[in-house]
Structure formats: C-alpha cells, structure tokens
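in:
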C-alpha cells in the first residue's frame, strides 16, 4: 500500500506541471471534485487540456482523529510516509502560487470560521478569508445579522474567490471574495454612471457605499469622500449619512488596477449657488436689466463682516470698485459663517461677480477690476487671510 501511495503522489506532482500550463480557457474554471482512489493510474501521455488533473481537483483538509489521520476523501493518511505528505503539501503550495500569479478564480468550500474570518479548504491546505474580504452582498442581504451569524450560515457552502497571498514559508494562504467579484462586475462600471446604493461604514474622511446591481444584490463598494457628500458645509459625515441609508451615487473615477471606485452624492444635486443668484432671487422680482438698475434705489445691508472685506478689497491694486448688486435667500442653511466665492459666470467687460452667503442669505457682488480670474483669487486670498 505505501508503494501505491507514493506512486499516486508522483502522478499528482507530474500533473501539477500539467496544470501550470493550462490554457486561458480553463483559467477561471475548476472541474470535478470527485475523490479518486489512490491507486488510480494517470496517463502521462496527455497534452495540456482544459481539464484539471483529478488528483489535484479534490480539496482536502487533514483532520486528526485518535491515532490516525484521514482526509476528506476518507483515505487514512497514516499509510503515508512523511516524505509523501510533504510532497503533497509542496505540490498544493505550488498550485496556490499559480492561482495567485495567474489571478485565477478558485471555487472554495468554507470549512468553518473564527473571530476574524472564514476557513477555506485548498486541497490538503487550510486557507483563510478575512471578513473584510467578503463581498458586501452577504451583509446587505441580511443587514440585521452579525458577521459571526453570517459566517455560520456560510459554512459548508462554496464561493468564488482569489488567492491574494500564498506564502509557504510562513504558512499564510489568504483568499479574497471581493477580488473575485471585482473581476465579474467591474466591467459594468463607467464614469458618470448612477447607482442605487446602501451606506456601509462611515469614517471621518467619508463613507463606504455598496453599489446595487441589476440582480438586486450589492456586489461592489466605493468611497464617497467627505467633500462629495453634500454642497452644505459638512463638519461630520455622520451628521448626514448613517450605516444602512439608501442613497443614489454617481461614479466619479475608477482605478481598475487598485480595484477602487470614487463616488459622489452631491453631484446628483444642483450647486445651490450655481453661477449667479437667478435661482434664489424672489420670484416676484423680475430678472431683467431693470431689476439690476432697481438695486441702485435701495440699500442692501451687507452680511456681517462683508463690509470689512469690501474695504480691504478696495485697497488691492487693480480693483476699482466693489458693490453689492442684489440678494436672495436659499431654501436651506448652508453655513452660519460668512463665505465668499468667485462666480464662474463669464465677466462683462472688466466686471466680475462674487457671491457671499451666510445662513440662508446670499448676496451678489459686482467687482470692477483690471485683474484676471487668477489675480482676483489671489487678492481674495490675501484679504480673507
């Protein structure tokens, strides 16, 4: 019997080289997991094909039971010599490195879990899939369950994953379901595309949001940076977004090499300032040339602090006149502090438009100057400092 075992392992090692030259058609497919008796005779005359060698196709984990040790195929490993067992493990580590280097998808069985992740069978080896490397579809499907409860329901099932670390020396075999899912669903992404999404974790710098795909599941996760959450001044992302919130997001950028998606919520809303005050001027006030001239006949009380800024601007070289032309009120409070903006509206001759706002009140300021936009920005920066 030991002789047959040694011969079988030798056949497995021979077929490892057969596996390593598998063509592209077979890279993302694993075939039969049916256990093969140890005395099965392999044909060494076959050329490279799309079928994995049966000897390596049945993942096994050694389980100690009394004085003997057996694998999941029921073979008593006490008949194996240490050399045979080591040869088998070395062959499986080589296969793991091949999966890692070629980026192949592995259909792995979940054997169990611990406090940090799932235990995955890979032939005679036992690998690890950390909880953060799980697809968000599991937690979004059952949002009220803890990650431990979700892990318990996954035991015994098979999921798609990629090998992201295969370190034989340190005995580290790490898997990621997220990386496998990225390969499948990222081709459906494009900049500017809008998704229904669900908020996951919320951090100081932004929120991680799970994208819902046409099948109704949340497969990929992107980041909404704090600057892309709202047009309002955001002091704390948690004041606006809470885990579990349903939102709409727009894809801003995609880094396919690093599997990263940058998202925006505010770009699906209009900038409350836009380029002029046309959308916040009271409806009863006509928006024509007479309206602008009418502002000469009444005084607009400057926003608190604005009169000082106007005085300082008039001291800047190249600025000839600064005048509040009209005012309006926004639907929401953007900030209680005074904010000053240079409008994107094109200048009329040597006249540029500034926008000042505090609370709901917005005032439009006409700046007569010989400076260009960059010169105005530098002048504003000096004054505001």
């Amino acid at each position: 019997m030991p002789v047959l075992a040694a011969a079988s392992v030798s056949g497995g090692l021979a077929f490892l080289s057969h596996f390593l030259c598998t063509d592209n058609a077979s890279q993302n497919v694993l075939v039969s997991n049916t256990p093969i008796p140890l005395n099965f005779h392999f044909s060494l005359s076959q050329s490279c094909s799309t079928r994995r060698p049966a000897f390596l196709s049945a993942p096994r984990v050694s389980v100690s039971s009394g004085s003997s040790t057996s694998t999941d195929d029921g073979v008593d490993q006490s008949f194996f010599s240490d050399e045979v067992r080591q040869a088998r493990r070395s062959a499986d580590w080589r296969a793991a490195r091949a999966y890692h280097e070629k980026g192949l998808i592995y259909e792995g069985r979940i054997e169990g879990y611990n406090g940090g992740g799932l235990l995955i069978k890979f032939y005679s080896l036992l690998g690890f899939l950390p909880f953060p490397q799980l697809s968000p579809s599991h937690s979004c499907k059952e949002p009220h369950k803890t990650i431990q409860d979700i892990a318990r329901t996954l035991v015994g099932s098979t999921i798609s994953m990629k090998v992201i670390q295969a370190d034989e020396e340190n005995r580290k075999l790490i898997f990621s379901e997220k990386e496998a899912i990225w390969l499948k669903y990222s081709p459906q992404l494009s900049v500017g595309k809008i998704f229904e999404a669900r908020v996951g974790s919320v951090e100081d710098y932004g929120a991680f949001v799970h994208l819902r795909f046409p099948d109704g599941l949340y497969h990929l996760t992107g980041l909404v940076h704090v600057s892309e959450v709202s047009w309002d001044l955001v002091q704390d992302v948690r004041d606006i977004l809470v885990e579990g919130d349903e939102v709409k997001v727009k894809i801003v950028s995609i880094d396919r090499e690093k599997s990263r998606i940058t998202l925006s919520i505010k770009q699906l809303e209009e900038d409350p300032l836009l380029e002029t005050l046309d959308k916040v001027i009271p409806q009863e006030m006509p928006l024509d040339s007479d309206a602008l001239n009418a502002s000469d006949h009444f005084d607009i009380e400057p926003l608190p602090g604005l009169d000082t800024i106007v005085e300082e601007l008039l001291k800047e070289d190249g600025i000839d006149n600064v005048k509040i032309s009209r005012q309006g009120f926004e639907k929401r409070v953007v900030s209680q502090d005074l904010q000053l903006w240079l409008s994107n509206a094109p200048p009329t001759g040597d006249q540029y438009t500034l926008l000042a706002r505090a609370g709901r009140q917005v005032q439009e300021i006409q700046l007569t100057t010989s400076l260009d936009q960059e010169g105005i920005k530098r002048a504003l920066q000096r004054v505001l400092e």
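note: The chain has nine helices and 16 strands.
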